[in-house]
Structure formats: structure tokens, C-alpha cells
Amino acid sequence: MVNFIEAQKPVLSRLMKMAGLRPIEMELEPGTTMHVWAPKHHVGKKGTTISPLEPTAAKKKKKNRKSPESRPNVVLIHGFAAEGNVTWQFNFGVLVSRYNLYIPDLMFFGKSSTSSADRSPDFQAECVAGALARLGVARCDVVGFSYGGMVAFKLAEARPGLVRSLCVSGSVVAMTDAVNRETMERLGAGSSAELLMPDTLKGLKALLSVSMYRKMWFPDRFYKDYLKVMFTNRKERMELLQGLITSNTDAKIPVFQQKIMLLWGEEDKIFDIELARKMKEQLGDNCFLYGIRKAGHLLHVERPCAYNRQLQRWFAYVNSTEDHVQAR
């Protein structure tokens, strides 16, 4: 019997290729491979990845402002329920014509995997940084959703020269004991693993219910197919959740050099907008908060038009302020 969730993936891949993106797998170190959707100018005619140091790539990097290489680079980092292309399927289309778009699969999602025992978001961030370096990306704007937002914060903290700006939705700088405990108690979940790694129809329906503002009905066949496809590598992902938790005493808010946009669903039940307001105060004057009405945790799926519109405005602002600085 056909799995409807699995069946949509070839269609989605075809749409992404039509938009000018190509899937690339890179061995970052022995035992660690990252899969990234990247602009097609990184791929040769035979499907091989073109290194930015190779002569063929150097020829392309002539001073031509209209060339793909001259566009700003944007990195989209997915959350915990799905890999990159599935997470951003309603968003990449409006960005790909103006920006060089990079959509990585984090470790143990999609086709990315590692033999390393490190399960921290710091390690995920280093893998993203390593993949971008291999692709010749020296500067980029990063968008992170939920778990991907935590990875994005780590990436910005560790690589300020790489990350120009951040746009984060439904996430926190660090998942402390206190935040985790309060969130689980409020949602009536025993643990983050119970909430985010369901293995039953009831559990998946509960996750979808708290993730969205609108109450949506799907046939049980949909949930069964989703469970079979999206919640793979269960052992490793459980370990990723354990690797997120930071003790309250160790948690510190870094001083970020980047401009940060907190783009939030006003009805987010997992990380509510009050948490976002407190985070904005902690992050200082370079941090901005924008709430999207009638949207929950999955705001980029529930209200993609509103989400994409604000994302484009944010990038326009970031680019205009950098142009102004350079002009001075």
C-alpha cells in the first residue's frame, strides 16, 4: 500500500529542482555526512559538487552583480518533526529567486548521519558551518524553526563572522531545566520525548493539536503514514532531546553581534509569545519581535503567506542596513 507521506517526497524534490536547488551530500569528516539542498551552481554537469577553490568555480565568480554568487545567502534550519525540504516546502519558493538558498538536514534527519557520539546543538551547528564552508559560503542570514532555532543560536554564537543575522521562530536560546519542566507541565506531557517523538496515533494527534492554532482533521491513514516516515532514527533523536537540556546554573544568554528577529505565532502553545517577549528583553536592542495572529507553533505551515511576507521584509531590512553601513 502506498504511503502518502513518502509519495509526496519525489514531487517535492522535483519542485525544488525546478526552482534551481540541488541535493548535495558531503562527508564533513569520517563517519559524518550532511545532506544539503543548495543552489544548482554548486553542482557540475555530471552531478559532482564544485569546490569554490576549483578553476571552474573561480571563472563563475567574476564581478557580475547579476550572477547567482552575488546574491545574499540564506540558510533555513528545520525543526524536530521533519527534515529540511518537508519543513520549508511552503517557504522556499518565495526566497529562491532572490537569495542563494541552503536547506540542510541536521544529523539523523533526512539523509544526514554521523558516527559521532555528540548529540548537542553545538555539534549540529558545527556540522552546518562545515557544510557551508565546503560550499564556499562566507556570510549568510540564518532562519531557524523550533529545534533548528536552538541550532541557529549556537551557530550565530560560535561563528559571528559567518552569520550576519538571525530569524528564529518557536524556539529558545537554551532549553534549561526550568523552561523544559514548565513547558511539559503546561502541555501535560511527561517529557519532551513523549511529546516530540510519538509512537501512537493518539500521541501524534496530541502533538499536532498543540502545534497548530486551527483545529484540523486528517484521516487516521495520514497519521499512520506520517509515523512510519517522519519519526525514524528514534534512538538517536531521543539522545538529541537529552542533549538539549541545560542546567539553570549553566545557562547564560550570549551577547550576540547579529541583528535578531523573533518571528512568532501569537497562539504558540509550546513556546508562548510571553517567553518570546522575555527573550527579546534579554537579547537587547538588536533583537526585534513580530507576532503573527491566528498562528501557533507551526506558523510557517499554518500561515505561510504571512510568514513569508515578514521574512522577506526582514531580509530587506538586513540588506538595507548593511548597504547603508558600507556606504558610510
Task: Describe the structure concisely.
The chain has 328 residues and is α/β, with parallel strands linked by helices.
Helix and strand succession? Answer: HEEHEHHEEHEHEEHHHHHEEHEHH
Number of helices: 14
**Based on CA inertia axes, which overall geometry fits?**
globular
CATH topology label: Rossmann fold
Number of separate structural domains = 1
CATH superfamily: Alpha/Beta hydrolase fold, catalytic domain
In CATH terms, what is the architecture? 3-Layer(aba) Sandwich
Helix coverage percent: 40-55%
Our estimate of the beta-strand percent is: 15-25%
CATH top level is Alpha Beta
Extract low-pLDDT stretches: 53-65
Distance between the termini: 63 Å
- How many beta-strand segments? 11
Major sheet? 9 strands, mixed
Radius of gyration: 19 Å
GO molecular function, one term: hydrolase activity
Organism: Zea mays
Protein name: Alpha/beta-Hydrolases superfamily protein
Keywords: Hydrolase
Describe this protein with a few key phrases.
single chain; 328 residues; alpha/beta; Rossmann fold; 14 helices; hydrolase activity
Task: Explain the overall architecture.
This protein has helices at 4-18, 55-60, 84-87, 92-95, 121-134, 147-158, 177-187, 192-196, 201-211, 220-230, 234-244, 273-283, 299-302, 304-327, and strands at 21-29, 32-39, 73-77, 100-104, 113-114, 140-145, 163-169, 175-176, 245-246, 259-265, 287-292. The protein has 328 residues and is an alpha/beta fold. It has a single domain, classed as 3-Layer(aba) Sandwich (Rossmann fold). Strands 1, 2, 3, 4, 5, 6, 7, 10 and 11 form a nine-stranded mixed beta sheet that branches. The protein has a two-stranded parallel ribbon with strand order 8-9. A hairpin with a 2-residue loop joins β1 (21-29) and β2 (32-39). The radius of gyration is 19 Å and the shape is globular.
